[in-house]
Amino acid sequence: MISRLWAKLGKSSPKAEMPQLDKVPDHVAIIMDGNGRWAKDRGLPRIAGHHTGMKAVKRVVREADRLGVKYLTLYAFSTENWKRPKDEVDFLMRLPQQFLEIELEELIENNVQVRMMGIKSDLPSYTIDALEEAMERTADNTGLVLNFALNYGSRKEMIDAIQAIAGDVADGRLTPDQIDEQLMSERLLSRDIPDPDLLIRTSGELRLSNFMLWQLAYSELWFTDVYWPEFNEAHFQEAVLQYQSRKRRFGGL
Ligand code: FPP
Per UniProt, where does substrate bind (predicted)? Predict the structure, then answer.
């Protein structure tokens, strides 16, 4: 199995600096930050950073797939990002469509399954249509799950879950003592996906920004100063290597 994976990577044997392929995190979640600053440093408009950020998405999807990651969740637009100037929001809303126009065939060839996590109702129809087409055409794929967090906010996600649970209690479908961690997890937008093992945030910011607050309870966190448009395969490997050097105790000893 492992040697087959190395063959897939085009390597004859593991190099010291390469991640161990039998200990790759199942689920990697990424806060892709720094697009605006990357553009500003180059005297470019912020949207140029988002555009170049798409190329980093492509690199990371490929690398995650090659390493054997099972789930890759990318924070592409938060419930708070609507506060940005309209032009920038419009551009960001076009990105899934642009990305999938270019990449969908390759994702299908590579057995990648596309998913979306967020509130669909506020999104423009072209954004939803592009994602739904991708989800439909990749629904039977069994490889990497590429999960776009779009119009996603963790507090809203939890409030919606709690309201639904409270409704079930009020209607007698649930009793309060039936509410446990498993039930809560099943009511979140991430219900079909295990909690992230590793969270990566780029651009030097050290915060979670309302991203998967429930699900990240025991995840390993890895931060880098690199701006998202420059994030590449080597950075991803570095994060996985760091993850592999950590001892996860989940509150035990
Ligand atoms: C945060 O950087 C980034 C975003 C809000 C958008 C993320 C989008 C991409 C990486 C493009 C790819 C998306 C898809 C769907 C393929 P920022 O704008 O907050 O950067 P700053 O902190 O430097 O201003």
Answer: 34-38, 46, 50, 78-80, 82, 84, 201, 207-209
3-state helix, strand, coil in the chain (%, to 5): 50, 15, 40
Average pLDDT over residues 146-150: 98
Catalytic residue among 65, 81, 151, 197: 81
181 DSSP assignment: H
Average pLDDT over residues 226-247: 97
Q: Which atom of ligand 1 is nearest to the CA of 77?
A: 5
Nearest to 145 by CA among 29, 24, 52: 29
Domains, the chain: 24-73+86-151+194-203 (3.40.1180.10)
In sequence order, what are the residues at sequence separation of 6 or more whose Cβ sits closer than 8 angstroms to the Cβ of residue 226? 34, 202, 203, 235
33 is catalytic: yes
42-47 CB contacts, 8 Å cutoff, 24+ apart? 46/88, 47/87, 47/88, 47/91
pLDDT (tens digit per residue) in 153-198: 999 999 999 999 999 999 999 999 999 999 999 999 999 999 999 9
Q: Is 37 annotated as a binding residue?
A: yes
* Contact yes or no for 121/179 (Cβ under 8 A): no
pLDDT band (50, 70, 90) for residue 6: very low
192 is catalytic: no
Residues 59-88 have a mean pLDDT of 98
33 Cβ closer than 6 Å to some ligand 1 atom: yes
Cβ–ligand 1 contact at 118 (below 6 Å): no
